[in-house]
TrEMBL record, chains A, B:
<dbReference type="InterPro" id="IPR004839">
    <property type="entry name" value="Aminotransferase_I/II_large"/>
</dbReference>
<dbReference type="GO" id="GO:0030170">
    <property type="term" value="F:pyridoxal phosphate binding"/>
</dbReference>
<comment type="subunit">
    <text>Homodimer.</text>
</comment>
<dbReference type="InterPro" id="IPR015424">
    <property type="entry name" value="PyrdxlP-dep_Trfase"/>
</dbReference>
<dbReference type="InterPro" id="IPR045088">
    <property type="entry name" value="ALAT1/2-like"/>
</dbReference>
<keyword id="KW-0663">Pyridoxal phosphate</keyword>
<comment type="similarity">
    <text>Belongs to the class-I pyridoxal-phosphate-dependent aminotransferase family. Alanine aminotransferase subfamily.</text>
</comment>
<dbReference type="InterPro" id="IPR015422">
    <property type="entry name" value="PyrdxlP-dep_Trfase_small"/>
</dbReference>
<feature type="domain" description="Aminotransferase class I/classII large">
    <location>
        <begin position="99"/>
        <end position="467"/>
    </location>
</feature>
<dbReference type="GO" id="GO:0008483">
    <property type="term" value="F:transaminase activity"/>
</dbReference>
<dbReference type="InterPro" id="IPR015421">
    <property type="entry name" value="PyrdxlP-dep_Trfase_major"/>
</dbReference>
<protein>
    <recommendedName>
        <fullName>Glutamate pyruvate transaminase</fullName>
    </recommendedName>
</protein>
<keyword id="KW-0808">Transferase</keyword>
<dbReference type="Pfam" id="PF00155">
    <property type="entry name" value="Aminotran_1_2"/>
</dbReference>
<keyword id="KW-0032">Aminotransferase</keyword>
């Protein structure tokens, strides 16, 4: 008996639901790109490119984006409160402003040490600050007891799906294309993903008929459909829902008794259209129609990883619940307790995100300049990339709408599809793999997000600085098309 | 139809496995203690105590423990790298040493920004630093590719159990008493907890016969027992396993083909006995008996939350795998990818923990003083508490051995047991609730960790400063015994 076969765990006997989960954003291509990066770092000159561009993941600070100064100054004081014994040095020699010092003192007074566990649902004062923000944003009250700090939005999604999914027959409506966190988490939980297709011909709009059809088909198969995920603005599409769209989704959720999970992590990354929160529309509907919408359950998620904050590595986020049964909320509290609490420094960063310097505050001018600089930079890069795609044969891409991504359609020659099949790969995977090998640019094949049968896409972030990498995609595409034409 | 009944989610239809999970460390008593704390903060003077002592959870910095200066100085520079443009100010006016600056620069060069996602398994250079530490600690090589950074050890346990548990028939041997993370996670995963009892008469020693019996009983019932959890030093018991004990556990694991999960988060919190790692013993056995132990799979966990570091709020930790199938490791990598990565600032803190200042380094003297101060303080408090327990009628407690806890047996009068039953509570819960109401001291009833039928315990940390709270426990106990005698 070899030592391998003597092992207790092997690929065939581990948790089958983990084995079945797919997460292409950090899959084979991403792993291969990291190998290339390591090779280049060691001085390897055999590769046909000199840098790896990780356009597979919305990770702004891995690329060019600088953190916002106000945020990081406060965090530095939270990490080393002894610095607060030297206020004159901070103010006169290190460029800290009085509002930085005040905020740090306030957060320390509320969180104690950032090295201490907080309450399982987060530091109470931070939950209150989030509630205040939500009230300012939506014009409706928010309750700190309904807010849960999480380790990024991913951990919030994990919590919510853990509670909602009763068993294999539980169905969750998920948009396609979607961020694969949803399908992967549902796989791990052994619940049923009920897809509904976004309408590419309407610039990836949310089509109520498609939702109804997805829901009805699943119910006909005995699936207990109990929640709908909406990613607004969309990932990977960038599309924002109009207020009318949101009303019809909420109406449908009310009729079908579906919990609404609104993933709103790109709420400030909007170029076309306007972000309107599900919470605001729900409260408006409740006000307009007393009693009618009281039973609607809504969970909205937000994160420090996206927007102009871009602080992915800090794993900060929160979700707000509306209309949930208090006994169910108690179970959510217990569930998050098992892993104790979200990172406290990340919680503090959430507080800074929702309560940034205001006009007149000493740090406002710099904050505003940095914030707008990031916003405009993202928009410029998005358009530069889009214009490049416009020129590429067989590539179609809607105008950039928001989020951090473009998700073009690619039509590739039959010969390329055959060559992919010969390698046992999907055609979009084959295309992205060849692109990575030739240029060092890492994209994610559309199959990683889901796409209509017979269509091919890829997702790219527009975070990477410079235009050279865009040029290298254009050049690769031309060669690829010529090779397989 | 009331709006409540119209809700989609209620306590009866959510995930039953979440509903069944128990996590007493942050359960009813902890929630009640937070309510008391909030009351006191508002100036309430109706309560019979003036402060809440959270002795229910190992959360050093919530109480008296100050963070270690070297760690926090480095973290402040990672949060605000702009400070590195002012080295003279840092060195001459703010008390930073050159090794602080060097370490911060090195970590930034390896992690990029702490606001960027790292690789899913952690920053490569940090994994290498952990491997170097393990090699120094154990005298055997360690491979960075086998190390996974996690959000505290809890998240590592969650990952490992997710992979190991194939279905409801999968059994995991768990010590009783145990830290309830294990039973709660197994509930959520709908897998089977296979208890084995620690031997209180041998100061909570690990009894191989009890393990054999637990395993055999479960197998007789058709359970697929495939892993054993060892908490060493123990939580809540503090007991350290001898090298001989570890050898027999590994031998048994080899014979029965059990994956060994060694929870070693208290490895530096040892007063009696000596910490020996499972990894060291496994590698020693492999060296002594070529081939015989090659199939043993070991996962060892460590955290920044415990030890003299005590940085719970930073959610840093790691696990190391030995002997795992590469294909299984690839699934672990995929699983951790779904929630992207552990908090990067927490990863950096792990690096500082495993690679602290060495003798001769500029920061060494202060580091050493702080480290020993914390160690001695914990030991003194443990003994003070133990001496108080020694004097309490019906309370028996072994000499403090390590970890952050004492776990005494309490014998309470039959009348108190009846009064508890009348309230529908277990007797230990009743005792701890009355104690909380009378003194503001929050303990965890022994039933939260598991205890032999007919015995009653509670767990208390020995982290809280001062002796007043200890006196209040002694006084309460006397009154309680007199009331129910």
């Amino acid at each position: 008996m070899s030592s391998t076969s003597a092992r207790r765990l092997n690929i065939d006997n581990i948790n089958p639901h983990v084995r079945e989960a797919k997460y292409a954003v950090r899959g084979e291509l991403a792993v291969k790109s990291e190998e290339y990066r390591a090779k280049l770092a060691k001085g390897d000159t055999d590769l046909p490119f000199t840098q790896v561009i990780s356009a597979n993941i919305g990770n702004p600070q891995q690329l060019d984006q600088k953190p916002i100064t106000f945020f990081r100054q406060v965090l530095s004081l939270l990490e080393n409160p002894l610095l607060l014994q030297h206020e004159e040095v901070l103010l006169n020699q290190l460029g800290y402003k009085t509002d930085v010092i005040e905020r740090a003192k306030w957060l320390l007074s509320k969180a104690g040490s950032v090295g201490a566990y907080s309450a399982s649902n987060g530091v109470p004062a931070i939950r209150q600050s989030i509630a205040d923000f939500l009230e300012r944003r939506d014009g409706f009250p928010a309750n700190e007891a309904d807010i849960y700090l999480s380790g990024g939005a991913s951990s919030g999604v994990n919590t919510l799906l853990h509670i909602i999914c009763e068993g294999p027959k539980t169905g969750i409506l998920v948009p396609i294309p979607q961020y694969p966190l949803y399908t992967a988490s549902l796989s791990v939980l052994n619940a049923t993903c009920v897809p509904y297709y976004l309408d590419e011909s309407q610039n990836w709009g949310t089509d109520l008929e498609a939702i109804k059809k997805g829901c009805a088909d699943a119910k006909a198969q005995g699936v207990d459909v109990r929640a709908i995920v909406i990613i607004n603005p969309g990932n990977p599409t960038g599309a924002s829902l109009s207020e009318a769209d949101i009303r019809s989704v909420i109406d449908f959720a009310r009729e079908e008794k579906l919990v609404v999970m609104a993933d709103e992590v790109y709420q400030t990354n909007v170029f076309i259209g306007k972000f309107v929160s599900f919470k605001k529309v729900l409260r408006t509907l409740q006000k307009e129609n007393p009693g009618k919408y009281d039973s609607v359950e809504l969970a909205s998620l937000q994160s420090v990883s996206k927007g102009m904050v871009g602080e992915c590595g800090h794993r900060g986020g929160y979700f707000e619940l509306c209309g949930f049964d208090p006994k169910v909320q108690a179970e959510i509290y217990k569930f998050v307790s098992i892993t104790l609490c979200a990172p406290v420094i990340g919680q503090c960063l959430v507080e800074l995100m929702v309560n940034p310097p205001k006009p007149g505050d000493p740090s406002y001018e710099l904050y505003d300049k940095e914030y707008n600089g990031i916003f405009n930079g993202l928009k410029e890069r998005a358009y530069a990339l889009w214009r490049a795609f416009e020129k590429m044969e067989g590539v179609e891409c809607g105008e950039p709408q928001g989020s951090m991504y473009l998700f073009p359609t690619v039509k590739i020659p039959a010969k390329a599809i055959e060559a992919a099949a010969a390698e046992g790969r999907s055609a979009d995977e084959f295309y992205c793999l060849r692109l990575l090998e030739a240029t060092g640019v890492c994209l994610v094949p559309g199959s990683g997000f889901g796409q209509k049968e017979g269509t091919l896409h890829f997702r790219t972030t527009f975070l990477a600085p410079g235009t050279e990498w865009v040029g290298s995609i254009v050049k690769f595409h031309e060669d690829f098309m010529n090779k397989y034409r």
